[in-house]
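ingest -> validate -> predict -> emit
validate: passed (alphabet ok, no gaps, 793 aa)
predict: started
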Amino acid sequence: MKCFKVCLFICCIYLQCFTVRAFCQTKQRYVAIDGSDQNEGTKDSPYASPLKAKEAVIQLRKTGYKGAVEIIITAGTYYLTQPLTFTAEESGSTQHPYTIRAARGEQVIFSAARALRLSWQKYKGDLWKANVPIGTSFKQLFADGQKLICARYPNFDPSVLPFNGYAADAISPERVKTWKNPAGAYVHALHQGRWGGLHYQVSGKKNDSTLQLIGGWQNNRPSPMHPTYRYVENVFEELDSPGEWYLDSIQHTLYYYPQPGQQLTEVTFEASNLENIITLQGSAQKPVHDITIEGIDFVQTAPTFMKTKEPLLRSDWTIYRQGAVKIDGVERCIIRHANFYNLGGNAIFVSNYNRNIVIADNLIENIGAGGINIVGDPDAVRSPAFRYEDVVPATAMDTIPGPKTNNYPAECTVSDNLIRNIGLIEKQVAGVQISMSANIKVFHNTIYRVPRAGINIGDGTWGGHVLAYNDVFQTVLETSDHGAFNSWGRDRFWHSNRNTMDAIVAAHPNWVKLDAIKTTIIRNNRFQCEHGWDIDLDDGSTNYAIYDNLCLSGGLKLREGFYRKVYNNILINNGFHPHVWFKNSHDVFRNNLVMQAHQDIQLHAWGDTVDYNYYTQSIDLQKDQQKGVEAHGKLIEPHFVNSKTGNFALMDTVGLPFKKMSMPHVGVQTPRLKNLAKQPIFPSIATNNSEKRDRIFIWQKSTLKNIETLGEQSAAGLSDRSGVLVVHIPENSPLASSQLQAGDVIIGCEGTTIHDLDELSSFLSSSTIKKSLNLTIVRNQQKQQITIAFNPK
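emit:
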């Protein structure tokens, strides 16, 4: 009996070990182009579609199997007829993950397009036509994988920005008259202030040959379309250039202008069909978890610019929560070693509740919208406001710090991604966009050739982000008033009137960190923006630590906000731009190397510390000391190790804090991406960078000047560099008791547009008999009409 029990025990142990071994073994399902969905899904008998493999895993889970799973896709292009949506029931675990990957060393393409079978016929001239199935509609067409140009005016020119071609007469009545039926066309334009793009669909034309338009909701600070930067596409009469196409969906006919020598019978044509390829869809209560997507190419999603409607918190952004890969309600999932290209919309969208998502080692290029978007739920925000001019009354404000729910991304990592040539359609986009999130790490990314910011943080909720070792350059190429890195604050305490803001902060100093509860760190990055600021902390950006960064062109700007500590940065050929600071900002700017005097605008208080900085020109130091700052500023002669190759480490660092500016580890580090990535063009060091003295104009004992710099334009919220800035109104000025204020920008007098001092002076010279003057001004970024008493003496 004893022997029997021992044998039974040994058998049980053996059986248990066998069961554990079987349980731990990874189950694999294979997919191949030449497979069949009637097969068994093994390596020798693969499925034909990823969807079938996914369904097989669902059935496996229903048997109670909880071990590791791999779907292995072999080489080929897979045209998806519907997105692959993974739910919580399909999740893996930390010990036994679920992986969907390309076979090692093989190219696997998941396409959101459908291949078109076309029988071409000569139409007229250089044009050909082919019938498409009834009901066919698409916004993107590809020939042998290359994106074609929808018939447009003006014609596509890769050397022109913005939009690769624009024209003021793109939708003029004279041009519209030549179009038989433009319904279904699209008008793309910049925002009037060049703060992103606007998009419209044409629903018809009126008797006066103007267009009926639907849209324009793609910017959260609405404006008319820019009068010059605009183009129109999907108009049959504009089909006049090789590589262009037009789809008549009513007559289900595709027209095409072939490239020279192109044999249409040998070309594979593909039309975008789906907006999304893979979605991980769970919730905070029931998350998808422990799924890895690896080594797959995601291509040819449909453009989504007409669906970009949802406003983000008081920023200039609207969004559409969609991407080639969408992640919503997910924990511990990974997207890695993938390629995203030829997409109509966003590449990756991380939406609502997400924790510990990793997006790493991906190439994202040639896409219509944004790269990686990380955006929480507005319902997780206390006292949210959505438009710049919105105000949350103090009596109605929720004053509990931090989020209201957990429905937002946190503890996620974006690392080692190469992001370039994005925003080909939509212009209010970024390589990495963060909004309503916490503790997001953005490390070792290379981002360039983007229409607006490379990295954007849209609000103060809830901070704790770390941006390090990123290489961001060739930014703000098609827009204006922005930076390589850009942020906004405008949190629940925000008010656009600075006097009101000063009163709020004096009464409730703790409110400024109700949303920005954790410090956001920006360190060891290389930024370059020749069309704005290298680092641009805009309206209300609060609770930042910015150190050990190399800024190559645009300098560093701090606009309204609180508790920013900026130190140990090198600002090449530029300097510090403090704009429109509030009282008691508690800002600190110290131990930075600057090459210009501080370019302060509408500053009435200098924060806690603006001192101990290093200057390369004595005249700049003297200018700043005359302003009452930089009592301990020092003049140095910088000797960089090799600025021509980007090594801006100082040869003599004795007593100086700059020891990390050689930047050997900035940008992507993965060999495959490092071999593809470019570097910025390193600037020559300017030997005389002093500011020129502004021309001033004295009127009624008050000081006025032209709007001349991007900083002055930005501080006033102007669409361009025109207008006359009121610099100072002394107490004894006849204007002291008028409605005019220092900081106002005069843009009109008595209905006449004023661009500069010459036009204002000329107008005033002809208005000596007037007793009052009606002015159009911009104050607090809002256009206003005021009347002032006018005394010609």
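The chain has three domains: 114-272, 303-674, 696-789.
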